């Protein structure tokens, strides 16, 4: 601050630039009009075991607690916005069915190649589908990265 407690033009520009950068980063963590297919991981039948599911993120997350692995439904992630590869593992998404507004929070446990999401049928896809998605073979969704509500193990 300049004398008298006034913010100088240079500092104001810096603050504005930082706010713009933060807004751009936040916007890069969400997408809409995304294709979400489904997969039968069936984690409830395999004790939420990432190794048994042959999930990409098992390398880093298979040793996490049962409570951590089972807190959210599972998804593979290959969406157009957000981190990829190991950096996406364990992160959470709020996924919303664009047609109905129904939403659920899921944990990223795998990679995919469909350009969107591959939701576990039982723990995620069926929770936001009204029957049309399974008939069509996919949903159109929006997603945003959200805090999983726990410390990273």
Automatic annotation (TrEMBL):
An annotated Gene Ontology molecular function: RNA nuclease activity
InterPro entries reported for this sequence: Barwin_dom, PR4, RlpA-like_sf
Domain Barwin: 29-150
Residues of the signal peptide: 1-28
UniProt-listed Pfam families: Barwin
Top-rank taxon: Eukaryota
GO BP field: defense response to bacterium; defense response to fungus
PANTHER family for this protein: HEVEIN-LIKE PREPROPROTEIN, WOUND-INDUCED PROTEIN WIN2
Protein's UniProt name: Barwin domain-containing protein
Lineage, top ranks: Eukaryota, Viridiplantae, Streptophyta, Embryophyta, Tracheophyta
